[in-house]
């Protein structure tokens, strides 16, 4: 095999993550990225080929680059490459956070809606309370300015999730499994908020103590790192529908 067992497993998991995103309404045509650091390396990252829809991604179609965005391995011979401009956000996170193994960025409808709300993500559901300390980054136009990386990383800090104002959502997690889980729940929190606000009625906001306790119970060191237990089920969910992501 061209790749080590470790890299291949990372490729299969990342391809699975790409395939899951559109199934749960979190993709944006051929745009956005999910990047994963190859285990055992400091600067080798897997990313999608630019121009492919998420539902087309396979383990062998992923492109290997380094933190600088330089291509290390490209299986495509038809000129398909990497969206260099779109990688600005991902490279900033991977370079500054060595605890992060996977970064997901979305332009979902609900995520964009909440990103434009001055109130940000409200603690109105158990799901959204998980992200009580979510970070925020102000919009600076399309993310092609390398100078923005410093401000983006400073705003993210040590958090595992961030709302990019007037833009979308981002999660940064230790593993692909945890990243998908975090983005799924963050997306659900945003959808619930949009729906609740559309009801045009007064919202119930739990006490600060309840919000803090709920947030605490979602921390990976308290009960479990959410996403790990769920991941085999997510892979089986895909296998029942289309197992070609493993190719």
From TrEMBL:
Q: Boundaries of each Class II aldolase/adducin N-terminal domain copy?
A: 12-194
GO CC, sorted alphabetically, is: cytoskeleton
GO function term, MF aspect, one: actin filament binding
Q: List, alphabetically, the Pfam families matched.
A: Aldolase_II
Q: Which SMART domains match?
A: Aldolase_II
Classify the source by domain of life.
Answer: Bacteria
Q: Which InterPro entries match?
A: Aldolase-II_Adducin_sf (IPR051017), Aldolase_II/adducin_N (IPR001303), Aldolase_II/adducin_N_sf (IPR036409)
Q: Which family does it belong to?
A: Belongs to the aldolase class II family.
Q: What is this protein called?
A: Putative aldolase class 2 protein
Q: What organism does this protein naturally occur in?
A: Advenella mimigardefordensis (strain DSM 17166 / LMG 22922 / DPN7)
């Amino acid at each position: 095999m061209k790749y080590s067992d470790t890299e291949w497993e990372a490729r299969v998991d990342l391809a699975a993550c790409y395939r899951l995103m559109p199934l749960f309404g979190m993709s944006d045509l051929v745009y956005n990225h999910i990047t994963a650091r190859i285990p055992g390396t400091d600067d080798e990252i897997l990313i999608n080929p630019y121009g492919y829809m998420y539902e087309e991604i396979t383990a062998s179609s992923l492109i290997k680059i380094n933190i600088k965005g330089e291509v290390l391995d490209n299986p495509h011979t038809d000129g398909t490459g990497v969206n260099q401009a779109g990688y600005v956000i991902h490279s900033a996170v991977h370079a500054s956070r060595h605890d992060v193994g996977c970064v997901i960025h979305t332009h979902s409808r609900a995520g964009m809606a909440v990103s434009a709300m001055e109130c940000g993500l409200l603690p109105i559901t158990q799901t959204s309370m998980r992200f009580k300390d979510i970070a925020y980054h102000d919009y600076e136009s399309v993310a092609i300015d390398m100078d923005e990386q410093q401000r983006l990383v400073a705003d993210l800090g040590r958090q595992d999730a961030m709302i990019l104002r007037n833009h979308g959502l981002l999660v940064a997690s230790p593993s692909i499994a945890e990243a998908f889980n975090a983005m799924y729940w963050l997306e659900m929190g945003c959808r619930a908020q949009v729906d609740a606000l559309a009801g045009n009625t007064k919202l119930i906001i739990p006490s600060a103590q309840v919000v803090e306790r709920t947030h605490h119970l979602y921390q990976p060191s308290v009960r479990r790192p959410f996403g790990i237990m769920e991941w085999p089920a997510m892979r089986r969910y895909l296998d029942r529908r289309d197992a070609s992501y493993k190719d």
